[in-house]
Design a protein that fits this description.
- This protein has 445 residues and is α/β, with parallel strands linked by helices.
- Among the domains are: 55-188, Rossmann fold; 206-369, NAD(P)-binding Rossmann-like Domain (Rossmann fold).
- Helix content is 48%, strand content 15%.
- The strands form two sheets. It has a seven-stranded mixed β-sheet with strand order 9-8-7-6-10-11-12, sandwiched between helices. Strands 1-2-4-3-5 form a five-stranded mixed β-sheet, sandwiched between helices.
- Helix 9 packs across helix 10 (240-251).
- The two termini are 27 Å apart.
- Bound molecules: NADPH dihydro-nicotinamide-adenine-dinucleotide phosphate and (2Z)-2-iminopentanedioic acid.
- (2Z)-2-iminopentanedioic acid binds at residues 90-92, 114, 164, 166, 193, 345, 373-374, 377.
């Protein structure tokens, strides 16, 4: 490995000892760009990698709110404003009990590279809270969102930092967050994306991450003499990304046979009944095991990690980080998987990723494969700036174009450095070259 890269990585590990997810994301990216750094000794003199791996700003705050029993609850709130070289900070908010600084720094760091790949003018950020929306009443969720925004509003803005959804933050939460921002700031601007269609949102944003994932995977398959049609697919998760990945894969002729939530997975040999999944998850906010109440011939297994034992041609992990480990990768490979597309952020461990690449599995990394969500967020911002709305077909066509473009960009970058079909290295290099160019142009700041 390049000496400068290895020194920055060692320092990063020493300085952030309790941040395993951040170290994991940084290790993958820094190792990938080693070849580029060999060609650019000036990066060291300019301190480029030290600047890149340190967030521009981290905001941490308390979020006190009152539950339905009149008891005061206090959660942690965060916004990591990681890098604004290419555009305003942009990235989702995650509400999940596991949220901590390490997870938000890994997500924010990944987001810089993902947003660079979209070709659109957005920098990288991420935020959230250890608040768990599960099991809370709508009023509790509203009071929490208001308390969260009561602090966050002073740090964000349509040209400064534009949050959106992520795990645990969907249409309901964005609505409450937006309503309170509007009240506090006294302005109706594109300060959040994923907004409802009635108040500035974009058609196709809801579908964008899942559809975009399948558009990119489809292009990767086509360019490698394969096709999606007729293939068996496993999609983990049953949230926003998973549902629309399942929808697009099915529309393109694949059969999705399994989906999950954090409690367990369902297997339906006839192909997942997505209308039922939408009804359970989007309407009732229920659990995936309710699927087998309707489809008696489907099977429910109360262990989500076991989903990777289901035989498939294509695996689309769309739930959360590190959900697919080395052992699962070995089982998938043994069962004949030939493509993996990461709908979630860093769902595959470093060891599992290596297994897939060494086995010749076509592996589309999340920062490229799931970039359709944030790309469409940027299209939402563009529509807001113009005070107009594009049709579903227009947004969807732009999304598809962006995803196909991303695949060719990362494919070309991999080839340029002699790493044909290593799309992990290709994505990291293609993203980095643009970020480095912008940062160097701005000088030391
Ligand atoms: P949702 O909250 O809509 O759904 C999350 C899904 O993942 C649920 O099925 C949830 O199950 C499951 N899940 C969450 N945490 C865990 C866990 N610790 N173990 C097992 N399963 C878990 O989130 P999204 O669909 O929006 O996000 C899914 C992934 O996609 C995340 O990694 C996110 O960062 C990434 N992503 C999202 C984008 C977006 O536009 N929304 C864009 C790009 C990436 P349960 O209900 O049981 O918690
Ligand atoms: O991880 C992601 O890219 C997201 N959660 C979407 C971010 C966004 O700003 O749309």
């Amino acid at each position: 490995m390049n000496k400068y890269v290895s020194k920055v990585l060692e320092d990063l590990k020493t300085k952030n000892p309790n941040q395993p997810e951040f170290i994991q994301a940084a290790t993958e990216i820094l190792e990938s760009i080693s070849l580029v750094c060999d060609e650019h000794p000036e990066y060291e003199e300019k301190g480029l990698l030290e600047m890149l791996t340190e967030p521009e700003r981290v905001i941490m705050f308390r979020v006190p709110w009152v539950d339905d029993n009149g008891k005061v609850q206090v959660n942690k709130g965060y916004r990591v404003q990681f890098n604004s070289a290419i555009g305003p900070y942009k990235g989702g908010l995650r509400f999940h009990p596991s949220v901590n600084l390490s997870i938000l720094k890994f997500l924010g760091f990944e987001q810089i590279f993902k947003n660079s790949l979209t070709t659109l003018p957005i920098g990288g950020g991420k935020g959230g809270s250890d608040f768990d929306p599960k099991g809370k009443s709508d009023n509790e969720v509203m009071r929490f969102c208001q308390a969260f925004m009561a602090e966050l509003y002073r740090h964000i803005g349509a040209d400064t930092d534009v949050p959106a959804g992520d795990i645990g933050v969907g249409a309901r939460e964005i609505g409450y967050l937006f309503g309170y921002y509007k009240k506090l700031a006294n302005e109706h601007t594109a300060v959040l994306t994923g907004r409802g269609l009635e108040y500035g949102g974009s058609l196709a944003r809801k579908q964008a991450t899942g559809y975009g994932l399948v558009y990119l995977v489809n292009e990767m398959l086509t360019c490698n003499g394969k096709e999606l049609k007729g293939k068996t697919v496993v999609v983990s998760g049953s949230g926003n990304v998973a549902i629309y990945a399942c929808e697009k894969a099915t529309q393109l002729g694949a059969k999705v046979v399994a989906m999950c939530d954090s409690n367990g997975y369902v297997y339906d040999a006839n192909g997942i009944d997505l209308d039922l999944v939408k009804e359970i998850k989007e309407v009732r906010r229920g659990r995936i095991k309710e699927y087998v109440d309707v489809h008696k011939d489907a099977k429910y297994v109360p262990d989500c990690r076991e989903i990777w034992t289901v035989k498939c041609d294509i695996a689309l992990p769309c739930a959360t980080q590190n959900e697919l480990d080395e052992k699962s990768a070995e089982i998938l490979i043994k069962n004949g998987v030939f493509a993996v597309g990461e709908g979630a952020n860093m769902p595959t461990t470093l060891e599992a990723t290596k297994k897939f690449i060494d086995a010749g599995v076509l592996f589309a990394p999340g920062k490229a494969a799931n970039a359709g969500g944030v790309a469409t967020s940027a299209l939402e911002m563009a529509q807001s700036s113009q005070r107009i709305f594009w049709s579903f077909e227009e947004v969807d066509a732009k999304l598809k174009n962006i995803m196909v473009g991303i695949f060719h960009n990362i494919d070309n970058a991999a080839r340029k450095y002699g790493k044909e079909n290593n799309f992990v290295i290709g994505a990291n290099i293609a993203a980095f070259e643009k970020i480095a160019g912008a940062m160097l142009a701005h000088g030391i700041c």
